[in-house]
Write a structure and sequence with these properties.
The protein is α/β, with parallel strands linked by helices. Helix 3 links the parallel strand 5 and strand 6. The relative contact order is 0.17. The protein binds ligand LLP. The site of ligand LLP has 22 residues, from helix 10.
Amino acid sequence: MTFPPIDRSLFPDSATIEAGRLQIGGVDVIELAERFGTPLFIYDEQQLVDRCKEAVEAFPGGVAYASKAFLCKAMARIAHQAGMAIDVATGGEMYVALEAGVPAEHLVLHGNNKSTAEIETAVEAGIGTIVVDSFDEMDRIEAFSAPRDAAVDVLIRLNPGIEAHTHEYLRTGVEDSKFGFPIVDGIAERAIERAVSSPAMRYRGVHAHVGSQVFEIDSFDRAIRALAPFVKSSGAEEFSIGGGLGVAYVEGEQASSISEWGAVARRVAADAGITARITAEPGRSIVAAAGITAYTVGTIKQIPEVRTYVSVDGGMSDNPRPVLYGSGYEATLARSVDRERSSLVRIVGKHCESGDVIVRDAAIQDDLAIDDIVVTPVTGAYGHSMGSNYNKVLRPAVVFVRDGSARLVIERETYSDLTVRDVG
Ligand code: LLP
């Protein structure tokens, strides 16, 4: 079977092809691989800026970048400078955003199990908003803030009981979930009442996140309608619809743009009689398609009549999504991107696990050889951020490219990083 070259729409916006070779941001990908080594995360910096600006326009009521998708200081600054707040889900994400120079009032703190220390750090720094997830968390906020006569702005995370059509692990809005206050048995009402009457909290409104990698915008529609009564009766000034907009990873997938998502959300909210500001916190849709990963091919093993395994120098430590969710990706040779792909191979990593797969059934050019640079597009979200040191494999470098030049934003780890905390 012969497959066409990768659909150009899966590459970053600035991708071009020069004599068959892939260029991003005006920089040759193979040269980047030579200069910075592989595996290498390469981001189209202008695309990151453009998606952030698109989000700011799509949600005039305010929008936060969900930093769990990909966070480093350079990314936090891009989102902040474009006018986004930053959604931080842990003390660690909060630390990086603050280190990047993002003022605390532009941060939104999430998490279903915020520690007392995280709450204290956030309130002391002057956090913009805490999205409250449980009554236990309210106890902690009150224990810290009430004696100091301080109050923090809060959104109450409600669970709309909506099943978004996405992977089971990525669904968060179903009733049986660890996230948010369920809207049954008067629990959501009690949570809102407590926030309204607490001296430690300034109730600003309601939050919901239905899940991630959601293609059907209709899922947001249902969540907005389900929560409209709570938003309206509580006098909420803000209603955050969370993140979750899906992106196309492989040929043939179609995703809505952030602009379309914003327009639908605002229209549905208006139809439901909601006057509160509609806000959102996209992660994946900001960064996924702006990033690609470049790997070097190390071994090619042909098992006659079975399959060909192509091993590259990374794997589940830089992209755990295939092994976690069975996620699909496309692959191509960086030196002949415009050539048809007539071999079907399995691209695997270098980890000691059979599940260490990057692309299960990859169509690839048939002259693939050792030392070739293979790229997988749409790896800008939840790859680097969920990466690990499994098998003591070093975390890759990250470069941003724009206007013909590249800047290193995260250095590749070195072996000495592996023992720096090992004090035994
Ligand atoms: N807001 C909240 C409260 C969230 O829990 C999430 C994602 C987002 C916003 C951003 O969602 P996004 O726009 O990125 O879909 N590791 C998984 C995704 C987990 C998402 C967790 N929460 C993956 O690789 O697909």
